[in-house]
Write a structure and sequence with these properties.
36% strand; CRISPR-Cmr3_IIIB; Immunoglobulin-like; 373 residues; globular; five-stranded antiparallel sheet; mainly beta; 3 domains
Length: 373
């Protein structure tokens, strides 16, 4: 296992799937896709491994497992991973600086009511609000210690600002034009604008974990483009393996679970499931074994956001890749432990749970584990 820290030297172009042509505007995502970063790394490694990109090398590059990217903040001698905010939290903002935090927990559907989801329980706010309200924005990125506390149910505190939360990167707009030297006007189709993610904040980098059997010797750092427009980034080997391991508190809490207890699965990166929002390993009447373990669970409820589009261009087939609908990062699945030792789940901390291998190798569907009652 190898970890990398990526430090962008320019704003990163991570555009969405909307068409981009003459005179258009390039729209940006809020955070680089895992598949984008994985593709950049594979290209860099392929160049260092001989630059032949023959069938054998391409096969080895595809088999490389790339997990991330997750925000990493370094100050003095401390480094912290940040995770997307879980979608089982709502915040009510008062008249001044008052804030009330509500958690979402499964609640049995009232008699005479039902949905087409096939679930007997749906997320409901705890405590019950006295009146309806429009939720205010939740800090989008949480430091790992804050996330662990939330996953264990130790605290319902969600700071509005400070070192334990982080905003998404600032988006920088640029207008590009090519001038005709004869007329002094812009060339046809050469006036357009781009939006990029400015990740050049002091102490901020992108953290990756990489596993490869065949190309470990080529996993070295250097400068290499990241995203569109060949914007440069610095790729450095790091010693952040401990940051990617399951926290001892989570491991101990999972060890204490018994059949019938509640387990929470939170997506650290967006995931692709063949069944839409439902993981494929839960499609047998909402029950199944967690991949890579002998732990059997049942689905009680889920709190997911709107689907996100995953698209791109295949350099191998020279045609657009299929469009997939992703479950967004931060989505929460409420599970019930049926059999097996929940301690095994610690082995899958920040491992991908997407249904298809190609998406798992790109780091889509990294999971975090917690409890619920």
């Amino acid at each position: 296992m190898v970890t990398f820290r990526i430090t962008p030297k320019d704003p990163v172009i991570a555009r969405d799937g909307r068409p981009f042509g003459n005179g258009s505007r390039m729209h940006s995502l809020d955070w680089p896709r895992a598949s984008t970063v994985a593709g950049s790394l594979r290209t860099m490694v392929g160049k260092r491994a001989g630059d032949s990109f023959d069938e054998g090398l391409v096969s080895s590059l595809k088999a490389m497992e790339v997990y991330g990217p997750l925000p990493l903040s370094s100050k003095c001698d401390e480094s912290w991973l940040f995770f997307p905010a879980p979608k089982d939290v709502l915040i009510k903002k008062g008249d001044k600086d008052d804030r009330e935090v509500f958690v979402l927990r499964p609640e049995k559907v009232e008699e005479g009511c039902g949905t087409d989801l096939g679930l007997e329980f749906l997320p409901a706010m705890d405590p019950k609000p006295k009146e309806a309200f429009k939720p205010s924005a939740v800090p989008p990125l949480w430091r790992s210690d804050l996330m662990v506390s939330w996953l264990l149910g130790k605290s319902r505190e969600v700071p509005a600002d400070g070192d334990r939360v982080m905003d998404l990167p600032h988006k920088e707009d640029r207008v590009h034009v090519a001038i005709d030297p004869l007329t002094g006007a812009s060339l046809e189709g050469m006036l357009f604008s781009t939006t990029a993610l400015d990740l050049r904040k002091e102490g901020l980098s992108l953290s990756l974990k990489v596993e490869s059997k065949d190309l470990s010797d080529s996993l070295v750092g250097g400068h290499h483009p990241l995203g569109g427009e060949r914007r440069l980034a610095r790729w450095d080997r790091s010693k952040d393996e401990d940051l990617w391991s399951c926290p001892d508190e989570i491991r101990a809490a999972l060890k204490g679970l018994r059949p019938g207890d509640g387990v929470r699965l939170v997506l650290g990166t967006s995931a692709v499931f063949d069944g839409g929002w439902m993981p494929g390993w839960l499609k047998d009447k909402g029950e199944g074994f967690v991949p890579g373990t002998s732990v059997k669970v049942s689905l009680v409820s889920a709190s997911t956001g709107r689907w996100e589009a995953l698209s791109g261009w295949s350099y191998e087939t020279k045609r657009p890749k299929p469009l997939y609908r992703m479950v967004p990062a931060g989505s929460v699945y409420f599970l019930r432990l049926l059999e097996g030792s929940a301690e095994e789940l610690a082995q899958t901390w920040l491992k991908p749970m997407s249904d298809r291998e190609v998406h798992r190798n790109d780091g889509l569907g990294l999971v975090l584990w917690g409890l619920w009652k």
